[in-house]
Specification:
The protein has 173 residues and is an alpha+beta fold. Helices cover 27% and strands 28% of the residues. It is built from four helices and seven strands, in the order E-H-H-E-E-E-H-E-H-E-E. It has helices at residues 12-22, 42-53, 110-124, 140-148, and strands spanning 3-5, 69-76, 79-87, 97-101, 130-136, 152-159, 162-170. The strands form two sheets. Strands 1-2-3-4 form a four-stranded antiparallel beta sheet, with helices on both faces. Strands 5-7-6 form a three-stranded antiparallel beta sheet.
Length: 173
């Protein structure tokens, strides 16, 4: 049974396996991994994980002023299968939720399940009424995941990454 957990240094080797499944240098949505982040060394990985979780806070505590979110790894039996993050501050360009599933773990419904869990958190913990979730226009699997969670297409915008579908999901109160 998969679970959503905070990023942890405990799963360094499992994270590297996940990253390698994508392919070195490829963008992995949901992890907040930048091109210059050192996740290979123990020290670099620990610093990166710290940066991912340093602004997380208990429900009900005020949000810090800077951009932050609720990062989660999708883990099953000690394997990192993907990542998902709920951004606490609205960003019209990148939306409020980003996610990615490693290639070898796709087509199992993990993204749909994880997105559903983060939508609950957006509603209950952050009190949001709706969220914006974009995906690349040619990423049909992601579009279906978002639509399966109630996403309604606002339209397609040209961005620096190419055409992007913009979906809104209204959260039940």
């Amino acid at each position: 049974m998969p679970e959503l957990i905070l990023p942890t240094i405990r799963l360094h080797a499992a994270f590297l396996e996940c990253r390698d499944d994508w392919g070195l240098g490829l963008h992995e949505d949901g992890f907040g991994l930048g091109a210059h982040d050192d996740v290979d060394s123990s020290e670099g990985f620990a610093a990166w994980v710290h940066e991912q979780v340093r602004l997380t806070h208990p429900a009900g505590d005020p949000c810090p002023d800077e951009q932050h979110g609720s990062p989660r790894w999708i883990v099953e039996n000690g394997h990192v299968l993907g990542g998902i993050a709920l951004r606490h501050k609205f960003d019209d360009q990148i939306g409020q939720i980003g996610y990615g599933i490693r290639p070898s773990a796709r087509r199992r419904g993990l993204a749909r399940w994880a997105l559903g869990e983060m939508l609950k958190e957006a509603r209950v913990i952050l009190g949001l009424h709706r969220v914006l979730i974009p995906c690349l226009a040619d990423n049909i699997a992601s579009a279906r995941t978002i639509e399966g969670n109630g996403g309604v297409l606002e339209g397609i915008r040209d961005t620096e990454h190419g055409p992007v579908r913009r979906y809104w999901i209204v959260l039940d109160r």
